[in-house]
What we know:
Strand content: 25-35%
Strand order of the largest sheet: 1-7-6-2-5-4-3
Structural class: alpha/beta
Order of helices and strands: EHEHEEHEEE
Number of strands: 7
Largest sheet: 7 strands, mixed
Amino acid sequence: MTKTTYQTNSLEETRSIAVEFAQHLVGGEFIALIGDLGAGKTTFTQGLVGAIGSTSRVKSPTFTVMNEYAVSSHPTIRRVIHCDFYRFTKAEELGALELDEYRRPDTVIVAEWPDALPTVDWEPTYTVTIEHKDEQSRTIMIEEGV
């Protein structure tokens, strides 16, 4: 199990860490994004989605629950699903998203607040934990297979 820790001091640095991380993705990954409100989860996802090859505008899925971004320039990844489990209170509610349909080798799923539903049995390929110390500074920990 690999764990890497980064310190960032700007939104651009947070996106840059995500760009570096995205170089290791091939498709089929489930990425758990952990962090408080305003920690930088969506900023990280913006860097990741752009690095994979999507030109879509990445925005927080807090109110839409799930956003899908088409990818056209990656050799193996065709889309990124960005979802937010924050508003879910029961595992049955998550079933309405039909995420199992998106668990494919050409898709990367990025889930904010995956720990909101401890009964969901999805083992993340990577867990990205973002802690904000102040308005700009972040600690980003990327762990494989957590």
